[in-house]
Amino acid sequence: MLSKKTQYAFHALIHLAENADKGPILISEIAQEKNISIKFLENILLELKNAGILGSKKGKGGGYYLLKTPKEVPLAKIIRLLDGAIALLPCVSLNYYEKCENCRDEAVCGLNDVMGKVRDATLKILENKTLKDILTRNVSIF
Amino acid sequence: MLSKKTQYAFHALIHLAENADKGPILISEIAQEKNISIKFLENILLELKNAGILGSKKGKGGGYYLLKTPKEVPLAKIIRLLDGAIALLPCVSLNYYEKCENCRDEAVCGLNDVMGKVRDATLKILENKTLKDILTRNVSIF
DNA sequence: AAAAAGCCTATCTTTTTTATAGAGTTTATG
DNA sequence: CATAAACTCTATAAAAAAGATAGGCTTTTT
Description:
Pfam families (chains A, B): Rrf2
Low-confidence stretches of chain A: 137-142
Keywords (chains A, B): DNA-binding
Structural class of chain A: mainly alpha
CATH superfamily of the largest domain in chain A: Winged helix-like DNA-binding domain superfamily/Winged helix DNA-binding domain
Number of strands of chain A: 2
Shape of chain A: elongated
Oligomer: homodimer
Radius of gyration of chain A: 18 Å
Organism (chains A, B): Chitinophaga rhizophila
Largest sheet of chain A: 2 strands, antiparallel
Protein name (chains A, B): Rrf2 family transcriptional regulator
CATH topology of the largest domain in chain A: Arc Repressor Mutant, subunit A
Helix content of chain A: 40-55%
InterPro entries (chains A, B): TR_Rrf2-type_CS (IPR030489), Tscrpt_reg_Rrf2 (IPR000944), WH-like_DNA-bd_sf (IPR036388), WH_DNA-bd_sf (IPR036390)
CATH class of the largest domain in chain A: Mainly Alpha
């Protein structure tokens, strides 16, 4: 399951994309619109900013805005940023690899083999689907 | 990520499958072999038993054994039993469905759409790969 | 009867997730 | 230039989940 953090990030990004023409958007506006604790959302937007996905402006008239077009933001990137590994086992994670405890040889491990296939199938979708793809079907529903 | 519980379950099942000819296997033997806390493993094996995957025998000469052939145990079943939902969002889970909070209409939600595809791709593998598949490549490695 | 082994339920500890607090910094504007 | 608006940053707290342990109970073998 995706954490609340990642889910909130998606919802916030959708809101920002849908209102990209309106200049910087207030954290408080997004929080209210999507029913998210404003302080929690603050941290999430900050992470998205530090990752280069969002820009921000301080002071009156400030707020957050997308630095990239929705098509340039793969869903996998958001998930990795907020949740970490996408793979089901550390030993098949591309971005957060760790050896499984007790593992003697991944090359001969059947679990490693299968979970690697799951990772590939998952990433094929999440690396190619972008923020744009979750907008089209979504006509300001959230 | 799969929980330790699920990972331990896989390792235990592999051990039981590899020693299926030796009659009931002691919890303590599996625990030692796979470096798992014996008490924690006890709970896991009990769940597998209650799910009809393992059988057990009490008293001297007792232990656990597979009730099914490895080919009859899909990996998805084990994951669901110990970890719950496989899907990334509650609203696309087949076995643990829940409506997302704030969701007005799943039929128009782009996230629901994409995550449904991820679920399908994942299940296509995990429903079809079985205990047998993680044995073949694995020659008593754990 | 005694020992071996699984059964069952409860509790405890640790880690992770979710949420909050509050002082700091930047910027617009009257 | 003072003030208010808004994001920034770091720390902490609360809640939930995961991981682990404890101990008495039941069944079975010898």
